[in-house]
Amino acid sequence: AQSVAQPEDQVNVAEGNPLTVKCTYSVSGNPYLFWYVQYPNRGLQFLLKYITGDNLVKGSYGFEAEFNKSQTSFHLKKPSALVSDSALYFCAVRDLTGGGNKLTFGTGTQLKVEL
Amino acid sequence: GAVVSQHPSRVICKSGTSVKIECRSLDFQATTMFWYRQFPKQSLMLMATSNEGSKATYEQGVEKDKFLINHASLTLSTLTVTSAHPEDSSFYICSASLAGVPYEQYFGPGTRLTVT
After folding, report:
1. CA–CA min distance A108, chain B (Å)
2. What is the rounded (10 degree) CA torsion for B74, B48, B20, B27?
3. What is the per-residue pLDDT across A49-79, written as a single tens digit (0 to 9) for each?
4. Smallest Cβ distance to A101: which of B4, B102, B107?
5. If you write DSSP's letter for every residue of A11-46 in order, what string do you get?
6. From the CA of B93, how many Å to the nearest CA of chain A?
7. Would you say residue A29 has pLDDT above 90?
8. Over 80: is that where the pLDDT of A99 sits?
9. Can you tell me the mean pLDDT for A32-36?
10. Which chain B residues are within 8 Å of A106, Cβ to Cβ?
11. Which among B16, B25, B51, B100 is most buried, taking Cβ atoms within 10 Å?
């Protein structure tokens, strides 16, 4: 089965500093990788995806992620964090187990950006 | 584009009653819809996958007689929690995918269910 791991439950960063939220994956075949953000009591908002092509993927709100095949990682980054980026971030991988087109999510990383 | 709505956003019901949650794709036809459950400060757990006009496929451990899913049209799926109990209290999120792009899911805003 496909899986993703988010090793950090929480990441704290000062506003204006760069941020990284880590994600590693385990898949058979070509990975389709996604990042979503969730604000309190809300659904998930799509940030970006990697399907194929350039390893550096740019997404919404200034976020980007780097696909690293050798390290099986897909870390989310932003050059300068904002307080409004504080939210719960999920990494996900497409899961074709059972013939379906599902998403398997990581456990989530709470990002806290402080002044 | 690709907006998904859920109704209601919050619902409180008494133990033993049933409650229905609607998921609608507002500006596209969703061949597949997904229902997730999320406990506080935890990840999303896929409950079931539904394709329009066919029976839903439930994940292991999810009671299909308790969580009834209907996907009667390309823009509407419903989740009915039957004979709800306090342990069913949770945040329920639906998502929908477009025909031809099955790996991209668009998420609804979620429904907070509280069973008293």
Report:
1. 6
2. -30
3. 998 889 999 999 999 999 999 999 999 999 9
4. B102
5. EEEETTS-EEE--EEE-SSS--EEEEEE-TT--EEE
6. 7
7. no
8. no
9. 94
10. 43
11. B25
